[in-house]
């Protein structure tokens, strides 16, 4: 497999780009690549060491970095693609791209921080792809994402409520109206559960999965459903009349029964 590389083009405002700015660009670029390598590979340390392959003397300054040593070329190649795709996605939307963990987001924000006095723009390209030019929108969107993520947290849990409002337009979802407080919880479910969801419409159910909680509202707001069970309807639940006549004391009086429990 051919080794791939990342080209970086620094477009100056007035005069040449300083060595200090070039070093900042390279360090911050490698930082984001390394964080993506960790995220994609699922490892605590990156699998690749990056090095300077070439540098131009013409304006705009163009440098090329690539692998000088790697344990997994597939991961390093994917990191390069995610670098370019992700940083442009962050420039356009306040949503974390695939594999962009919080350290990746922070590294992306730091990278566009080099767009200061000396530079009018910075551009990146992988292979034969066109150059892309992120802006300070990346930093604003990262702040928005991290701020929202801090507001929410996830837990694996079971929620109980009434299944209503099934929607299959763009993705398969239904609303669960929680019993105790009446909260509406958005439930994503796989398409292979569609028949089951249809059978349980307007019935009481228990759903299990990764649940997203809103810290400010102190309540669940969404769940990715992995398992669902139907609960008995109110008419199927036992009444007080059904419980009358049940003997739990083996014929003893209540006083004798409590005494026997106390004395062992």
Structure in words:
This protein is an alpha+beta fold and 264 residues long. The protein has 2 domains: 5-135, Alpha-Beta Plaits (2-Layer Sandwich), CATH 3.30.70; 153-236, OB fold (Dihydrolipoamide Acetyltransferase, E2P) (Beta Barrel). It is built from 7 helices and 9 strands, in the order E-H-E-E-H-H-E-H-E-E-E-H-E-E-H-H. The protein has helices at 19-41, 73-92, 102-112, 137-151, 194-199, 240-243, 254-263; strands spanning 5-12, 48-55, 61-70, 119-126, 152-167, 173-178, 184-188, 204-214, 219-230. A hairpin with a 5-residue loop joins strand 2 (48-55) and strand 3. Helix 1 (19-41) packs antiparallel against helix 3. The longest helix is centred in the N-terminal third of the chain and has 23 residues, at 19-41. It is elongated and about 100 Å long.
Put the structure in a nutshell.
The chain has 264 residues and is of the alpha+beta class. The protein has helices at residues 19-41, 73-92, 102-112, 137-151, 194-199, 240-243, 254-263; strands spanning 5-12, 48-55, 61-70, 119-126, 152-167, 173-178, 184-188, 204-214, 219-230.
């Amino acid at each position: 497999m051919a080794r791939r590389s990342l080209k970086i083009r620094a477009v100056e405002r007035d005069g040449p780009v300083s060595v200090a700015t070039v070093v900042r660009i390279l360090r911050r670029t490698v930082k984001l690549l390394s964080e993506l390598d960790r995220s994609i590979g699922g490892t605590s340390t990156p699998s690749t060491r990056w090095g300077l392959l070439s540098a131009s003397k013409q304006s705009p300054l163009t440098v090329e970095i690539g692998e000088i040593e790697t344990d997994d070329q597939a991961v390093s190649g994917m990191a390069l693609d995610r670098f370019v795709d992700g940083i442009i996605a962050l420039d356009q939307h306040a949503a974390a791209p695939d594999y962009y963990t919080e350290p990746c987001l922070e590294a992306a924000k730091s990278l566009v921080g080099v767009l200061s006095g000396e530079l009018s723009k910075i551009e990146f390209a992988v292979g034969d792809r066109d150059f892309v030019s992120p802006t300070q929108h990346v930093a604003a969107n990262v702040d928005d994402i991290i701020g929202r993520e801090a507001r929410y947290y996830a837990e694996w849990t079971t929620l109980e409520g009434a299944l209503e409002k099934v929607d299959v337009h763009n993705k398969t979802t239904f609303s669960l109206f929680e019993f105790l407080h009446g909260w509406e919880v958005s439930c994503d479910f796989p398409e292979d559960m569609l028949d089951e969801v249809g059978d349980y419409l307007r019935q009481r159910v228990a759903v299990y999965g990764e649940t997203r909680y809103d810290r400010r509202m102190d309540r669940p707001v969404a769940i990715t459903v992995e398992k669902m069970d139907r609960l008995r309807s109110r008419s199927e639940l036992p009444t007080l009349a059904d419980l009358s006549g049940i003997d739990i004391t083996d014929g003893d009086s209540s006083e004798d029964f409590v005494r026997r429990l106390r004395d062992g």
